[in-house]
Structure formats: structure tokens, C-alpha cells
Amino acid sequence: MFKNILLAVDGSEHALKAARLAGELARLTRANLWVVTSYDPIPPYLGEPNLSQIITARTGEAESTFSTAMLEIGEIAGEIHKEVLEGPAAEAILSVVKVREIDLVVMGTRGLGRLAGALLGSQSQKVIAHASCPVLLAR
């Protein structure tokens, strides 16, 4: 049924619940799992050494987010791929859906973003509206 599942994580509680769901689905369907996280673009005008420090900090945050998510996912039969993306979360997720031929997106209803939608997080609303595959939301 599902060959490639995308899990979007940001370290929030909803994302951890999504990781548990994605892991279970991947085990049941023997699917590959793409675990992605995204960050806002870094303004190039910051210059060095600020640019390097921000990149190092974000890389550390991403590894921490991935490590936590991997504990929730557990062992799966398929391959697990991790990607750190730059740009708005919804746009980054939708890009991976297209490029990696994703069959299902699993993500939390609310993340750690600064602004949230009325019922769903604004990023999850955008993914639902524009994804070419099913989207499973965890709350």
C-alpha cells in the first residue's frame, strides 16, 4: 500500500506522536521512511562567523530532533532516510513529496512554529491543501 512514507518532525509533542504512527505504519507496510525537518532560511547578510555558528547550531538541533524521533519510530524493515531542509516547512515537505515519490505524509497537527492556525497548525493546513498524496495528522 505505502512504499515511501514521509515523517515531518520539529521536536514538538505532536511530531513525536506522528513519529510513533509513522513507525507503526512503516512496520505494517514494510515501507521506507523519510524523516525530514526544516528551518527558516539563514539571511546571507549575517556574514561570518555568524553564518557558521547558526549552521552549526541548527545541525545540532536537527540531530537532536532526529534522535528523539528515531526512538519513537523504532525498528522498521525498510530504509530510513533523514533530511534537513531549508525553507518554510510546508513548502519543504511538499518538495520532498514530489521528488521522493512519497505515498503518505505523517505529521503533527501543531508544531513549534511561531504562528498557529485556528484548528490546525498553518503548516499542516498547507500540506493538506497541496499534497499529491494522503496526509495523516497526529494530535
CATH architecture: 3-Layer(aba) Sandwich
Report the major sheet. 5 strands, parallel
CATH topology value: Rossmann fold
Classification by helices and strands: alpha/beta
Shape: globular
Tally of structural domains: 1
The tally of helices reads: 4
N-C termini distance: 24 Å
Share of helical residues: 40-55%
Q: Give the overall pLDDT as a whole number.
A: 89
Percent of residues in β-strands: 15-25%
The side-by-side strand order for the widest beta sheet comes to 3-2-1-4-5
What is the element string, with H for helices and E for strands? Answer: EHEHEHEHE
How many β-strand stretches? 5
Q: Stretches where pLDDT falls below 50 for ≥5 residues? A: 113-120
Nutshell version of this structure?
With 139 residues, this protein is an alpha/beta fold.
Q: How do the helices and strands line up, and which of them pair or pack?
A:
Blueprint: E1 4-8, H1 13-29, E2 32-39, H2 50-73, E3 80-86, H3 89-99, E4 104-108, H4 122-130, E5 135-138
Parallel strand pairs: 1-2, 1-4, 2-3, 4-5
Overview of this structure, please?
Helix 1 crosses helix 2 (50-73) and helix 3 (89-99) packs parallel to helix 4. The chain has a five-stranded parallel β-sheet, sandwiched between helices. By secondary structure, the chain is α/β, with parallel strands linked by helices. 44% of the residues lie in helices and 21% in strands. Strand 1 (4-8), helix 1 and strand 2 (32-39) form a beta-alpha-beta unit. The protein has one domain: 3-Layer(aba) Sandwich (Rossmann fold), CATH 3.40.50. The two termini are 24 Å apart. The chain is built from four helices and five strands, in the order βαβαβαβαβ.
